[in-house]
Specification:
Number of strands: 14
Helix content: 25-40%
CATH architecture of the largest domain: 2-Layer Sandwich
CATH class of the largest domain: Alpha Beta
CATH topology of the largest domain: Dihydrodipicolinate Reductase, domain 2
Number of helices: 10
Structural class: alpha/beta
Distance between the termini: 58 Å
Shape: globular
CATH superfamily of the largest domain: Dihydrodipicolinate Reductase, domain 2
Radius of gyration: 21 Å
Largest sheet: 8 strands, mixed
Number of domains: 2
Length: 349
């Protein structure tokens, strides 16, 4: 690193860019020194009120600024080229999901950053939610026995009116649509628990308000000699005020129902060693949460950036909890979804 202080640049000052900027700038020994965004209004405001040097393009920032790491928060269609430039400058990188739009590009970047000893992380924040982390541990320890079925769901009222084509989220080519924008969270959560599925089937992609992309996603995941389960994602459900993740894991000894705020565990027999009774047990986020130095939107948002910084500072540069390789694996499953859906459409026609 250039100094004892970790100097960070932010590429893309939209909603997530500002969120990550706000969080990482509070961490001890970390300072956001430069930001890039194509909007002159945004860059002028950041220069005036945030005390950073602002650029209209990322190439100028990377060339002029003495940085140690970057946060990349741009539409994923741009990320492959950006990250190749970041790699050439020898900078560590945190990238907002879904990282890139092809698994081949993702694996290429993973190899490049790993070979250079550069810390790399993708922003799948569910891996840092204490409820989901605890559920993963309990499943791995065999609390509910052999896992037979699972269900990963996500809901939000993100798209609740007709969409114009001018919006970058309205085309798959730019990384828009519910698969890239939201279903990747549900996919990654299953990958975090069980690994990449061996096959996907029965994929349905349904538009509601969008013209050229899906608003509802459903599919079934299969594992050889393992469980099977479904994902269901709907970002046109305005009965949900905030994005909500739901997870159900069913085993031969019981089941776990979890969301970001807590979980219910049903056991056929008591497990006194872990403090669980037979029947229903309630675990709240306050029972399992880990402390973070700054709270914005959820503990997991700070926890993932704190983890990113810790991995940079670690002498062995250990892999992050959600590396570029993990991000590429999630994109590989989205490619499976699109192929499976296209095959079904061909058969139906």
């Amino acid at each position: 690193m250039s100094t004892n202080t970790l100097n960070v640049g932010v590429i893309g000052a939209g909603r997530m860019g500002i969120t990550h900027h706000s969080i990482i700038n509070t961490l001890p020994g970390v300072t956001v020194t430069a930001v890039t965004d194509p909007s002159s209004v945004v860059t002028s405001l950041l220069e005036k009120y945030a005390g950073v040097r602002a650029y209209g393009d990322h190439a100028s920032m990377l060339e002029r600024e003495p940085l140690d790491a970057v946060l990349v928060c741009t539409p994923p269609v741009h990320n492959h080229d950006i990250l190749r430039q970041v790699h050439a400058k020898g900078l560590h990188a945190f990238v907002e999901k879904p990282f890139v739009l092809s698994s081949a590009a993702g694996h290429e970047l993973a190899r490049m950053f790993d070979d250079a000893g550069l810390v790399n992380q993708v922003g799948y924040m569910n891996r840092f939610n204490d409820v989901f982390s605890r559920a993963r541990t309990l499943v791995g320890e065999g609390l509910i026995g052999k896992v037979l079925r699972f269900r990963s769901e996500m809901y939000s009222g993100t798209i609740v009116r007709e969409q114009e084509k001018a919006n970058w989220r309205a085309t798959h080519a730019n990384g828009g649509g519910a698969v890239y924008e939201m279903a990747t969270h549900a996919i990654d959560l299953i990958h975090y628990l069980f690994g990449r599925p061996d096959r996907v089937g029965g994929t349905s992609l349904t538009p509601v308000f969008s013209r050229d992309v899906e608003d509802i996603v459903s599919s079934t995941f299969y594992y050889r000699n393992g469980p099977s389960g479904t994902i269901y994602v709907n970002w046109s459900d305005d009965s949900f005020r905030k994005p909500t993740n739901k997870l159900e894991v069913f085993g031969d000894r019981g089941k776990i129902l979890a969301d970001q705020h807590g979980m219910r565990i049903y056991l056929r027999e008591a497990d006194p060693a872990r403090g669980f009774a037979a029947g229903w047990n309630d675990v709240y986020i306050t029972d399992v949460f880990s402390s973070v130095p700054f709270y914005l939107r959820g503990i997991e948002y700070t926890a993932q950036l704190d983890h990113f910084v810790a991995c940079i500072r670690a002498a062995d540069r250990r892999p992050t909890r959600c590396s570029f390789a993990d991000g590429a694996a999630a994109i590989a499953v989205t490619e499976d979804l699109f192929r499976d859906h296209a095959a079904t459409v061909r058969e139906m026609n």
